[in-house]
Amino acid sequence: MHEEETFFETIKCDDGISHNLEYHSRRIARTISLNINLHEYILPINDDALKCKVIYDMYGILDVIYEPYVRKEIKTFKIIEDNTLEYKFKSTNRDAINALLEHKDGADEIIIVQNELVTDTSIANIAIYDGESWFTTKQPLLQGTTRERFLDNKALIERDITVEMLKNSKKIALLNAMVGMYIIDDYSFLE
Does 5 have pLDDT greater than 90? Predict the structure, then answer.
C-alpha cells in the first residue's frame, strides 16, 4: 500500500438508513489500521435508494458522495483469465479491472478467473448454487462486506470454484453492498 493511495466503500442507503456500517468499518480498519465511526460521516440525505461512496486514505475520510442508485440487469457473462490481477484493498485505482472490462465483448459483466479458479466479477463477489447449497470462492480478489456478512450468517460456504462448476451451477448470485445477494436464474456465458 502506498501512502498516497485512496480507497472507497460503497454503502447502500435507503429509507433514511445506512446499511451494514459495521462491516464497512471493519474493512476500513483492515485497510488503513484506523477505527472510523462511519455513523459520524454518513447521513442519508433522503429516503431514496442511494449509493453512498466514502473515499478515504490512510489518514481518514476524504469525501462522502451520494448518488441515485438503479440496479443494472446482468444476464450475460464473459469469463476472463488474469493470473496477475491484485485487488486486496478496495482502491479507487481500478485501472487493471477496467482494462479487463474492455474485453467483455458485449457481455453485461465479466467473471475473473485466476489459476483456473473463479474469483469475482468487476463489481461484486460471486456465489453459485448447485441445487442444494450456495458456495462462494475461497480466493476472492476482494473480501466483500456482503460476502463476509453471508458467511457469518452461514448462508454461504467457502470452496474453490472451477469454471466447470460455475458453468454447471443452477444459479449465480452477485454479492455487493448495493444488491445484497442478487440471484440470477437466467444467464449465459459469451465465448
Answer: yes
